[in-house]
Amino acid sequence: MTDIVQRGLYYDELEIGDRYVHRPGRTATEADNVMFSSLTMNTQALHLDAAFSASQPFGQRLMNSMWTLATMVGASVSQLTQGTLVAQLGLSDISFPAPLFHGDTLYTETEILAKRLSASRDGQGIVTMRHTGRNQDGTVVALATRVALMWCRDAAEEAR
């Protein structure tokens, strides 16, 4: 019998230009929005107050954009970084070009933009990736560039 361990991809397995489509998607709920906004002390009325939001340009409550960002990055973990990430180094170029609402489903894809071996950490490499979140209609609702420090396969196996 063979043990099969679910993991992300090592630095060595990632190629510039590859695009990973993460499934399943995640349908955003009112409970997600209220809980996330409350847990993070974000009392923005656009997330919590239905009457106020109805009078605003989108006519309804918006999903908390930080929920959208966190869920988009989280959707990539099992396929890309589960057990192969050393550290997240940064997020940049974050934008939300269209709103996400309760009942919308967030689908995420990740493109590998750049990679290089670390100059200061043997057996590890720095990977730059772009996460794109789309709703069920294919409209882009979130973008983020992420830089991560990843294990190289041989070094990770040695470290174990």
UniProtKB/TrEMBL annotation:
Residues 16-132 form the MaoC-like domain. SUPFAM superfamilies: Thioesterase/thiol ester dehydrase-isomerase. Gene3D superfamilies: Hotdog Thioesterase. InterPro entries: HotDog_dom_sf, MaoC-like_dom, MCH/BMMD. Pfam families: MaoC_dehydratas. CDD domains: FkbR2. Transmembrane segments: none annotated. Belongs to the enoyl-CoA hydratase/isomerase family. This is Acyl dehydratase. The lineage of its organism: Bacteria, Bacillati, Actinomycetota, Actinomycetes, Micrococcales.
